[in-house]
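Weekly puzzle thread! Below is a chain. First person to post its structure in token form gets bragging rights.
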Amino acid sequence: MKFAVLGGGSAGQGIAGYLALRGHKINLYNRTPEKIASIAESGNLKVSGVIEGTAEIQKASSDIKNIVRDVDCILITTRAFGHEPLIKSCLSYLEKNAMVVIFTGYWAALRLRFLLSRVRYSNTTIAETTLLPLASEIVEPGHVKISGIKSKMRIAAYPASKTSSVYQKLSPVLPQLIPGNNVLETSLESFNPILHVPIALFNLGEIEKKEDTFKFYHEGISPKIARIIDAVDAERMKLIQKLNLDLLPARDMVKEYYETKGNSTYEIIRNCKAYKEYVLPNIFSYIQEDLLYGLVPLASMCDLLRVPSEATKRLISLWSLVDSVNYWQKGVTVDNLGIMGMNCEEILELVTKG
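Winning reply:
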């Protein structure tokens, strides 16, 4: 297949290298050309870590028009902040039967469905995954390290009737994909906000001292921080149950994705080999994303459906104090998702039928 990978950061370069080494043609886009200049010049991307090789990149450019045309699928790998600007910038160039997949979702399908409805072709498909398929980091220009590959990753389209088509096209390429019932599952299954926000808050001093070398999961987890993670995750699970979805607690997902061992959240994170040496880049930017597109919509949906979410709300308020940002005002709410005033049945009907 031929892919346009939008986003030349660690995630985008990791996915581009991974797919190219599996024999697929890759166009790579980044808004600023400097980040992908060495790849554009050489046409190659060095990949190390759990897989190794030199990946051939067909095009690497900051001209999005030349990247998204004549491809089978567009993969958006930027942070959630970049989803809407990227969709807007390539709307004019989307071809008939275009397929857009967002890694990772953060409610992307519901947030962006209104934009895609403006495309001259009404059959554009938007899908999202729960998380990134890889843990990767840029070692130096033109060199990306892949430290872990998830064994399972859920994908769903909006509306759900399109999921089967997306899955059939992508599962031979990304065999770890499993089809989700709807995009509620892919967005609510994401455990990044559940892990990142408490770990960062209670390691704030250490992170400020050594942000570029702090082994986020391995150094950041402790038995008491794990308890906070469990408290927030329990609220997420209550919302999931209210919506009659069949999803696992965060600790069980980490266990499955990375095939690690342990009984408690603390043990599972400490034993995860993919996490052991992993330095989360731009930590505070990740936290903002997790708050705006993760915990705030979680709390907003809990309020809509009358599910208690005190632990989640306390974390949002504490980070608002830390960053001097009102995350409650800036974050994604049920209004932004177009589900204000709906009950469980109406929300499920929306994501199923469109």
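Puzzle host: Confirmed. Bonus trivia for everyone else. The mean pLDDT is 94.
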